[in-house]
Specification:
single chain, 185 residues, alpha+beta, 7-stranded mixed sheet, 6 helices, globular
């Protein structure tokens, strides 16, 4: 039996929970060795992002989108206007906002590790880009410098590093670097 693929705009507690789980699984798969193991174990839990996704939905500023295969969520992303200082005040770091005002941002994008290399991420990316294009002329996404697989994925979708980067401090004393990948829509 062939299970159908369909997009779901995140709007329920079950959606927020599924997105948070996919994020956690994605973090553990993608950042192992780059982000301190004790930080991943302590901070990156299945429910870590559920309150954030719930709040984003309630405020209507950032949109969560899931791709389902049948009843199974396989990947998800969050997108909206570029985050500024107010949106970043509870994060480990704040991103520079000046030159990206008026841009769209892919705030997060993860495929469940057991669902990678099946084309699901590309389907979701194309849908998010289509939606961003309705509101913005350009967009960007931050990607960990060490995440070469994600960097190649974004490059295949028309993004390129624009030279901007930001240090991300992970307790107790590790610094990772996020690169800003940009594209016109």
């Amino acid at each position: 039996m062939c299970e159908t693929l369909h997009f779901v705009d995140a709007c329920t507690e079950a959606h927020f929970s599924a997105m948070s789980h996919i994020h956690a699984m994605g973090w553990h798969a993608a950042y192992q060795g780059a982000v301190p193991a004790e930080y991943l174990a302590r901070e990156v839990t299945d429910e870590r992002w559920t309150p954030i996704f719930r709040k984003n939905y309630r405020l209507g500023r950032y949109h969560g989108l899931l791709l389902f295969r049948g009843d199974t969520p396989v990947c998800c992303g969050n997108y909206g206007p570029a985050r500024g200082p107010e949106e970043m005040k509870n994060y480990l770091v704040s991103f520079p906002a000046g030159e990206i005002e008026g841009c769209g941002e892919i705030v997060s994008f993860y495929t469940h590790p057991v669902e990678t290399s099946k084309g699901y991420g590309s389907l979701l990316m194309e849908e998010i880009l289509r939606r961003l294009k309705a509101e913005f002329r350009s967009c960007y996404v931050f990607v960990l410098r060490e995440n070469s697989g994600a960097r190649r994925f974004y490059e295949r979708h028309g993004f390129s590093w624009d030279g901007a980067s930001i240090d991300i401090p992970f307790p107790p004393d590790q610094i990772c670097v996020d690169l800003r990948y940009y594209r016109d829509l």
